[in-house]
Design a protein that fits this description.
The chain is 37% helix and 17% strand. It is of the alpha+beta class. The strands form six sheets. A six-stranded mixed β-sheet has the order 5-4-3-2-6-7, with helices on both faces. A five-stranded mixed β-sheet has the order 1-21-20-17-16, with helices on both faces. Strands 8-11-12 form a three-stranded antiparallel β-sheet.
Length: 486
Amino acid sequence: MRIVSVLSLLTVVAVELSAQIPVTEYAARRDSLAARVGDGAVLAFGRREPVNHWPPFYQNPHFRYLTGFLESNAAFVMTRTKGRTEATLFVEKPNARTALYLGDRKTLAEIGTELGLRARFNDDLVHVVDSLVAAGIPLHVVPDAQSNEFIGRDSLSYQQAFIAGLRQRHPKARLVNATPTMDALRARKSEAELALVTKAAEVSARAHDEVMRVIRPGMRESEIQAVMEATYRKHGADGPGYSSIVGSGGNSTILHWPASSREAKSGEVVLMDVAAYFDGYSADITRTVPVDGTYTPEARAIYEIVLESQKAAERQIKPGTARNTPSDSAYVVLKDGLVRLGLIESATASFDPPFGLCPGTWANKDGSCPQWYLYIYHGFIHGIGLDVHDPSQFGNVPGNLFGNHDAFTIEPGIYVREKVFADLPDTPRNRAMIAHARAAATKYKNVGVRIEDDYILKDGKLIRISALAPREIAEIEALRKKAVVQ
């Protein structure tokens, strides 16, 4: 599969990047949702106003997708009866005191003009929803969690509290979870969405490039984060697409390490999983670079394996590719690499894990776990868009196939923790594994490497939209050497 670099598309993309989501597209999305749910009603909530103003307010992805409304404390109700659809936005009443802190809210008339939506005040919401369910109309409830990953644990959300009250008032209410329907709608990105994802990836990649030019031994992880975030903000981003991850030395082996005051030291790598949120759309890029001008032999060996695995996954992706095919190709490279480094006995060898270490997805039938899981413990591919882990066609549409207008990442990684064998049960299988791998685990300890790029599928071509961030060793070392000698 030939991959088209974003660098070769700059003249085309430059025109597309200015595109915003038009009002007509929001209306089309609502029409598509109405057609899928049939006769009934839809209820969705926007995010509530932050109580401490940090982090700053961002709209819920599902709610933004349907309405384009970016103010807090709003709700959306849509009804469909005999082919006729009516949609209403419920918003906060103006408050003169609150306006002194947050600015004026849009008036009902402004909402109608700018978004093409009828608007009412929140005072009417309970009465309207009660009337619908009392009439026996099924209510399709759109979740208000930031991501599907958190729905199960988000029991205290405003929507959950509202629905609990609704069930008390109407025990026979016909409530339908609209999550699968919304995910299927959001999976295929429009042209305007692809343009915004591309812009988010471009400014994020520029930030990674800038950081590679300035990192020096003694620089704190938080300083690296500050340079990164300042750079993409300078290029027009709204803020971080997610909590920035910057880990040096042993922290590079912790998947979601938040940047701290630790200083990056000579001989280490620093892993930077940092990307921008641009007009509602998030990129997701990771680079792992040497703190000095060059990678150590150990870091280079691991980096080469991870990069080769990413490219193996890339080669598999085209419209119609099955969901697991690229990940399977990446795993082959990673497992063979771990065998070659001496970190595992074989690609199929197992160990006996302590409780909780190896989830059911990875565990063998006898309760053991593959040895490679000690160094590779996350998935490689996920969608991006309104959320950093966004619905995709290969994950949310029947058949689970990649398709044109998918937007996603590929992010393989290998992580050699200093205490990789700590807390393992004392069993014959584990003793044999440790005897085999102890020297290699010591040699490569505290090296964590993840390489993550962003892609879109368009017109049958795989386009790496984060290509402005160097990923080849020679490119990275060229920038790092300049930084270290300055």
